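ok so for the tutorial part 2 we go from a plain amino acid sequence to predicted structure tokens. step 1 is just haveing the sequence, like this:
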Amino acid sequence: MEIELTIWQRAMLIQVISGMRGDVKLLRQALRALEALDFTEEEREAGEIVEEEGRMLWSTAASETVYTVTLEKPVVRFVRNAAEGFQGWPVGQAAEVLDLLEKLGVKEEENLG
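step 2 — the prediction. this is what the tokens look like for a chain of 113 residues:
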């Protein structure tokens, strides 16, 4: 499945999944997801993406850049569940978060709890 993600959406998914804890099965699933979501060297250069003190930073000009990411169905399911269950989404970025959840296939009604 191909999903178009902004740098922020992709970086947040990487952070969400990187922060997960669990058994060996979860670790393997998380590694597959992180491999699929990771930025290529070309993408890092184009977006001026750097990692500094555990944070991803990128140029303002690249903020609206959209990248197409190809994820296998089991990876999409894992990423969707991880994003949907994450408790630390910033309210100030609600529009971006809801857009991300929609791209992952989470229906709006499901988000209203």
